[in-house]
Amino acid sequence: MESVRIQVSGKRIKANGRIVAAATATNPAFGAYYDLQTDETGATKRLGMTVTLAERERVISIARDEENMWLVTDHQGEHRAGYNGALDCDVVFSPFFNALPIRRLGLHERPDSVTLPVVYVNLPDMSITADVVSYSSSGGLDGIKLRSPVADTVVSVDEEGFIVDYPGLAERI
Questions:
Q1: Three-state secondary structure call for residue 162
Q2: How far is Cα 58 from Cα 52, in angstroms, rounded to an integer?
Q3: Cβ 120 vs Cβ 129: under 8 Å
Q4: What is the pLDDT of residues 100-136, one digit of tens each?
Q5: What are the angstrom distances between the C-alpha of 124 and each of 21, 25, 45, 102, 142?
Q6: DSSP 96
Q7: What is the rounded CA–CA span in Å between residue 111 and residue 106?
């Protein structure tokens, strides 16, 4: 389950959210809290995240600078990387993060197909990888085809480009 509070100003977004997941065969139960800021184009500027498991809590900070390099700070220290030119972060178990490139590129308003590099955050282990996510839109509200490291589905969005239904993961209530 995900709950997110979003403040929008043009394409700029400030969001605070929480993800709560029950234990499964592949993952322990966990809770995650995040704080996201984008720049005026809608590209991720900063993501802070705290993940809590029964035995520990971990904090990570990911920030993009003016050279489009990412500074990642976690329990192992700091490192800087380009992540293949990514402008967006994607977080597993979160439909909200898929809305960022949809809104930034206007995929909810016009037909287009894109494959984008992303800074991919896996939960609950908080490992970070460079990956790609593909979106294909007809330009209407009839759905956007999404292919990510963990999904191949069609998501429904509202008139502002935010996810309304992500089959098998979440539905807005």
A1: coil
A2: 7
A3: yes
A4: 999 999 999 999 999 999 999 999 999 999 999 999 9
A5: 9, 13, 22, 25, 32
A6: H
A7: 9
